[in-house]
TrEMBL record:
<dbReference type="GO" id="GO:0015423">
    <property type="term" value="F:ABC-type maltose transporter activity"/>
</dbReference>
<keyword id="KW-0067">ATP-binding</keyword>
<comment type="similarity">
    <text>Belongs to the ABC transporter superfamily.</text>
</comment>
<keyword id="KW-0547">Nucleotide-binding</keyword>
<keyword id="KW-0813">Transport</keyword>
<dbReference type="GO" id="GO:1990060">
    <property type="term" value="C:maltose transport complex"/>
</dbReference>
<dbReference type="GO" id="GO:0005524">
    <property type="term" value="F:ATP binding"/>
</dbReference>
<dbReference type="GO" id="GO:0016887">
    <property type="term" value="F:ATP hydrolysis activity"/>
</dbReference>
<feature type="domain" description="ABC transporter">
    <location>
        <begin position="4"/>
        <end position="234"/>
    </location>
</feature>
<dbReference type="GO" id="GO:0055052">
    <property type="term" value="C:ATP-binding cassette (ABC) transporter complex, substrate-binding subunit-containing"/>
</dbReference>
<protein>
    <submittedName>
        <fullName>Maltose/maltodextrin import ATP-binding protein MalK</fullName>
        <ecNumber>3.6.3.19</ecNumber>
    </submittedName>
</protein>
<keyword id="KW-0378">Hydrolase</keyword>
Length: 238
């Protein structure tokens, strides 16, 4: 499961409408990328889906159920933040287990899920370390591990690689794509980096000033950009 549907969603901050009426469907299992220049509303859109911001009007459906007024923790979505937000005094194991302990899950089930997540993320040998003893890429994986153990219907990433240097970014990009293959869950990934969008996405959503300029596969956008903004942004001829 993990189909997400936005129907005529708008968002105002005060009097400023940053998202005019917007319709969008993210299919189950899809890797969708929201791309566009800084300030175009990518984070806002992701936060509306996550429930971290209330929409002004419209409706959000998750797996066919109206989730518009469902609080973030009950939407079954996991947000992976830009900053790692790991607990420095806790081991990797405890950091990953944290949301499950909060939910008072049985210890045996917690152990099982943490081991499984660590295995998928190649963190098995690092479970007893503290975040300070890890590389940037490993810390990023711990943050993702903390999302995986909750077995969410979808993962939401907001520019998760922007703190990493260029070489590490390429590696992490491949790791996240692999993770999508392994877990086969819906992922929505926000970036201002067109290369990231073109290499990772099943579906690209190009945004400008809160408006969707085009939705399509990387190849569709490259071959048939709808306008000069999309062409310029994706770097395709028009
Ligand atoms: P992006 O993630 O694409 O850089 P954002 O979603 O952060 O863009 O911002 C979209 C627009 O909404 C910007 O004009 C920004 O200034 C505005 N905005 C975002 N959050 C708030 C807020 N909490 N209050 C007022 N304006 C906001
Ligand atoms: Mg942003």
């Amino acid at each position: 499961m993990g189909r997400i549907q936005l129907k005529q969603v708008t968002k105002k901050f005060g009097d400023v409408e940053v998202i005019p009426p917007l319709d969008l469907t993210i299919e189950d299992g899809e890797f969708a990328v929201f791309v566009g220049p800084s300030g175009c509303g990518k984070s806002t859109l992701l936060r509306l889906i996550a429930g971290l911001e209330d929409i002004t009007t419209g409706q959000i459906e998750i797996d066919g159920t109206d989730a518009t007024n469902v609080p973030p923790a009950k939407r079954g979505l996991a947000m992976v933040f830009q900053s790692y937000a790991l607990y420095p005094h806790m081991s990797v194991r405890k950091n990953i287990a944290f949301p499950l302990r909060m939910a008072k899950m049985e210890q045996a089930e917690i152990d099982k899920r943490v081991e499984a997540a660590a295995s998928v993320l190649n963190l098995t040998d690092y479970l007893d370390r503290r975040p300070g003893q890890l590389s940037g890429g490993q810390r990023q994986r711990v943050a993702i591990g903390r999302a995986i153990v909750r077995e969410p219907a979808a993962f939401l990433f907001d520019e998760p690689l922007s703190n990493l240097d260029a070489a590490l970014r390429v590696g992490m990009r491949m790791e996240i794509s692999e993770l999508h293959e392994k877990l086969a869950t819906t992922m929505i990934y926000v970036t201002h980096d067109q290369v990231e969008a073109m290499t990772m996405a099943d579906k690209i959503v190009v945004l400008q000033a809160g408006v969707i300029e085009q939705v399509g596969s990387p190849l569709e956008l490259y071959r048939a950009p709808r306008n000069l903004f999309v062409a310029g942004f994706i770097g395709s001829p028009k």
